[in-house]
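Worked example (supplementary).
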Amino acid sequence: DAKTTQPPSMDCAEGRAANLPCNHSTISGNEYVYWYRQIHSQGPQYIIHGLKNNETNEMASLIITEDRKSSTLILPHATLRDTAVYYCIVRKGGATNKLIFGTGTLLAVQP
Amino acid sequence: EAGVTQFPSHSVIEKGQTVTLRCDPISGHDNLYWYRRVMGKEIKFLLHFVKESKQDESGMPNNRFLAERTGGTYSTLKVQPAELEDSGVYFCASSPYGSGADTQYFGPGTRLTVL
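After joint prediction of all chains, the assembly is encoded as:
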């Protein structure tokens, strides 16, 4: 699976949009971009995933560049409860493929 | 719909003892995964079941770890004998069988402390 690069930490003001970048320059055509987060010591929580097109759900938006070498996770209105470690993971499709977690980005939402 | 559940939430044992962790996946999910995070390191994959069969156990650290999924429903992960370095949080995840993007949903984890 392709490796990803994320900043170790970011701050965001409560109520503002949080934009978390991820580089995955060696991504293959059949690899998806997944985002998970881990709040404190809870289990990783699925946020969103995409292949080529931008995606939006009730939690976040995912913007993937046209060359697919980078992406941005957008939390439109960050709250204090969004403080967590966010993981960008690139993974081939299919259930047989494990998730490979990196160190992620610690997002601190400030009041 | 109930999510992935794990039992116990915490376990404290002495070095050399045996511990068994349990995971109940989301109903109907054929795929079950075990991961763990030890000593502040990254979350690492341990193994993957498809129904009752081990699909990938490349992440199992050594033969002190034994995972089972009899009947293709819940799974157990036994550590025998436990060592100090086994301390950490053990996560279970499940996903429905299918191709394409197959999202894994995680349980809350079991925090294991070996003294």
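Two points are worth noting when inspecting this output. Chain B has a mean pLDDT of 92. The interface with chain A takes residues 4, 30-31, 33, 35, 42-45, 48, 50, 55-56, 59, 89, 91, 93, 95-109, 111 of chain B (CB under 8 Å).
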